[in-house]
Amino acid sequence: MSRLAVAIAFLALNFYIYHYLARQAVITPRTTFASFPMEFGDWRCDEKLSLEPAVLENLGATDYLICDYHTPHEVVSLYVGYHATQIREDGGGSGENSIHPPAHCLPGSGWDIIDSRTVPLDLPGLPQADAHVKRLLIARGRLRQVVYYWYQTQGRVVSEDWKKILYVGYDRAVHGRTDGALVRFTVPLEREDDEPRADRAFEALARQVVPTLRSYLPD
Which three-class secondary structure state does DSSP give residue 41? Predict the structure, then answer.
């Protein structure tokens, strides 16, 4: 099948789903991040950070959490953005509420992606046992950071952007839901050879945060 035929078939399926199936969006009740814990064992967030109104409007998130958790020796930034719906209010196409892929947004913010890989993640509280997530090494000037992120949608952990898009169409057609979240941990590097320490810091915090997330991200 030619690429043109595949593109036409995809557009036709997209039109059918968004105009004839599950036209009424289902908004799932959930607990807001206002009550999200600011302490996990030795990790503490001094204050929850806020986005500028223009940034939040562009982001399209219904609710979000930004916290820099720290111990005496480590700092890990946590961002979770929840989207109650990822479609336009008029019901047509993929709308401005869709979750923005970090691999697209980071270069737009001046960060170069030095390395990108999909890695397995086995942590308590993940909605699936065989979860895989994205791990990025990014740079801006002399600054280096390790980023772990995934999309958490209705009981799934999704690492690939294209899979996230497909699930949005499928879930709306079958369940009337398009809600989902981006979960992102960012660890600054002190030296270029500091990645193992950053990986350990991510896992130490994520091991405590991830089980709590399930109360805020509905399956």
Answer: coil
Q: What is the pTM of this model?
A: 0.84
Rounded to 5°, the CA angle 54-219-89 comes to 40
77-95 burial: b if 16+ Cβ within 10 Å, else e: bbbbbbbbbbbeeeeeeeb
Residue type, 63: D
- Cβ partners under 8 Å of residue 99, min gap 6: 60, 81, 83, 86, 151, 164, 180, 181, 182
What are the sequence ranges of the domains in the chain? 3-213
DSSP character string of 57-117: HHH--SEEEEEEEE-SS-EEEEEEEEES--B-TT--SB-TTSPPPHHHHHHHTT-EEEEEE
**What amino acid is encoded at 22 in this protein?**
A
What is the C-alpha to C-alpha distance for residues 73 and 42, in angstroms, rounded to an integer?
A: 10
pLDDT in tens, 120-150: 999 988 888 789 999 999 999 999 999 999 9
Report the candidate in 87, 84, 44, 41 with the shortest Cα–Cα distance to residue 67.
Answer: 44
